[in-house]
Design brief:
It contains 2 helices and 2 strands. By secondary structure, it is mostly helical. The chain has a two-stranded antiparallel ribbon with strand order 1-2.
Amino acid sequence: MASTGKPRRSFRWSVVVVPLGVLAVVAVAALLVIRPFGRTNGGSDYLTEAVALGDLEKSISSSGKLEAGLTTAVNPKVPGEVSSVSVRMGERVKRGDPLFTISKDDLSAAYNMANQKLKAAKAQVNAAKSSLKVAQATVVQSVDEVLASGSGGTNNTSGSGGVGDTD
């Protein structure tokens, strides 16, 4: 075989050009799949408009669950049913602002119950005082009887003559 002296460049050139051609065809196909012909806004169904100052004419409605960013526990001094609310949803309040009113029926019932308990306790105190007076009178009478019987002919050897003294 005779050597022509020409290097085999066509083989090396095809190794580089064929993959680049395949890559270009894949890129064009991918672009056509992602952005089909005839669409100018990328396939989205929305409209845009320039910014302008004015009234809001459209609203967006949605459903879901809203949660407050900050919540505070309210602990009234007395229990009861809330009869009225003094603030509206979203209204700002400060410490000490009245938020609601508790039914006076519950408060009146609690007050009356406490008053009845107070009266019963006062009656028990008065009964205990009466019992104490009776017991004191009984002790005084017993002491008088002991002293009277001791001075009427019985010698007391302890010398003190007091009640409750022992040798």
